[in-house]
Write the structure tokens for this entry.
Amino acid sequence: MTLLDAYTGGRWGELAGQTAEEYDALRRAIGVFKPLKEVEGRLFKGGVDVTELGSVTEMSTPGSRRRRTKRSARTKSPAGERWVQLPPSIASIYELLLATSSRENSFAFLSLRGAPWYRSNFRQRFWRPAWDGVDVQNPGSDRYKPAILDGFRFHEGRHTHATWLTSDGISEVGRRARLGQKMKGMARVYDHVTPEMEQQILDVLEARFVASVLELTPDERHKLLSWVPVIEPMLKKAVQEAEQLAAKVVRAERFSQISPTGPSNENRPGGESAL
């Protein structure tokens, strides 16, 4: 769920409410149409009380029609209804998760007792201990876990995603469509997302994920691959490309050192007279 948080920019309810039937395997995209919502201590998805369920077989296939029922748990706005494509590596990991689910049409993310997540329980039992650390004031404790990023909230993954897209040059219409936000003014009429924009988004997000994996230590990388071996081909390809790029840089540097107009020319036999 943390990976989807960062690499889709989805809201809590949009991600916690994902089910197997809401995944488009052909497009490798998650459907955001019926987010999970808490109402008076109960969990609802598409107007159905799913508090005690780990399966949603009685729910209909996702669609674009908005039902205005009392507890429909609709998206925040009509623009929020969307398909969000996953970058290749994230898609492979998510597909592995769905493939290992014990029940057909189950929620993608379940609590330890096999029920959908309450946001408060997830936050207190898993999110906060992971990010803030455990027993951080007592490094000698058996429970001690250092903080990853103290104070980081789940919704800040959405902010991070938006910032990444901006930094990587994704147009505003592309960013807003992915995040489920409507365009302002006349841009709503004239600006549209093209297949080329969608591919650009996937490319820059995949590049960020690959770079993050390459930053891991060998032990960390080995542990990650033991959990999600499906990304090993991607990692091998990335390492090969990095090595090829490094080799090209070395060759370019060697060439520049013997360039007759370069600063190293004075150190060549004959110096300036060689010109």
In short: Residues 58-71, 185-190, 256-260, 271-275 have pLDDT under 50 and may be disordered.
